[in-house]
Design brief:
The protein is of the alpha+beta class. It has 2 domains: about 140 residues, 2-Layer Sandwich (Endonuclease, Chain A); about 110 residues, SRA-YDG (PUA domain-like). Helix content is about 20%, strand content about 30%. Strand 6 and strand 7 form a beta hairpin.
Length: about 280
């Protein structure tokens, strides 16, 4: 990475650091997030961060080419603005921005050579940030008549009428119909729209959950490079410890094993940096 003018609030970014800087920008947001990109296909980590931020009450605006939007991003956005001739890419919160060649698309993030600038609202970056905010703000003004502002509603999902059956194997489609997950992709810890948690333990996973004396030592979810952090699904599951009203469903290789609860206080495994959640069956509780 080549840096210059860093003390004044402007930093040049190369391919290797743009993604991590973007994640940091999203996580640093306290009031709003504005994402300007013609093409959008969200990585799992980005969608998790945005969904969490939306649940915290932040405004999340997308500016994109709606005709090229192939996925439902309503779960992690508050408003979507359609600009068919959009070519700019810019990502910002209330105090910093990234202007870059990078589309908010997982293929671009994983395969392309990109570059850009990180601008903070301080020092020499203050004027640049102000001008970026002014231009981006013009794109998200509700009074605009052209291009048209659109919302993409979440697809209606039919909730299965029958209770889950112990020992029955379910498909992804059936489970999504039943729980209406906030996050539609693959994950070990998923949250239903009613707030319940659903845990998956699969033989194909790189983590093997240990079972001993009726307790399942369940591995937490990765949160990026390095040790697992207590956020996203890990935070939701941790908050279930000592909460008698929490409902957690457990599936092993997509076979329903029943409800569980966090029996012992979760902890970080010292040799791996992974969170461990000691679970037990809720039967008899």
């Amino acid at each position: 990475m080549f840096n210059f003018l860093t003390p004044q609030g402007i930093k040049f970014l190369t391919t290797s650091v743009i993604n991590s800087q973007l994640e940091e920008l999203l996580e640093n947001a306290k009031e709003k997030i504005i994402l300007v990109s013609p093409y959008i296909k969200l990585q799992k980590r980005i969608q998790e961060i945005l969904t969490e931020k939306k649940s915290e009450g932040l405004d999340i605006f997308f500016v994109c080419r709606l005709q090229d939007l192939k996925e439902d991003i309503s779960v992690c956005s508050t408003q979507i603005f359609d600009y068919p001739n959009l070519h700019a890419k810019c990502y910002m919160n209330e105090h910093e921005a990234i202007v870059t060649s990078l589309n908010l698309h997982e293929f671009s993030q994983q395969n392309n050579i990109e570059m850009g600038f990180h601008i903070k609202n301080c020092g020499r970056g203050k004027q640049a940030y102000s001008e970026i905010l002014k231009e981006v703000g013009r794109l998200i003004k509700p009074k605009a008549t052209k291009p048209i502002i659109k919302q993409i509603p979440a697809k209606p999902i039919e909730i299965l009428p029958t209770p889950l059956e112990l020992g029955k194997k379910y498909s992804d489609i059936e489970l999504d119909k039943y729980f209406n997950f906030e996050y539609k992709g693959s994950a070990g810890i998923k949250k239903a729209f009613n707030g319940n948690l659903v845990l998956f333990s699969n033989a194909s996973s790189k983590y093997s959950n240990r079972e001993e004396d009726g307790i399942i030592y369940y591995y937490g979810a990765d949160t990026g490079p390095g040790p697992q952090q207590l956020k996203f699904g890990n935070k939701h599951l941790y908050d279930c410890y000592g909460n008698k009203s929490a409902i957690i469903h457990f599936f092993k290789d997509y076979t329903y094993k029943g409800k569980v609860y966090v029996k012992l206080e979760p902890y970080v495994e010292s040799n791996t940096g992974k969170w461990i959640f000691p679970l037990a069956s809720s039967i008899g509780q």
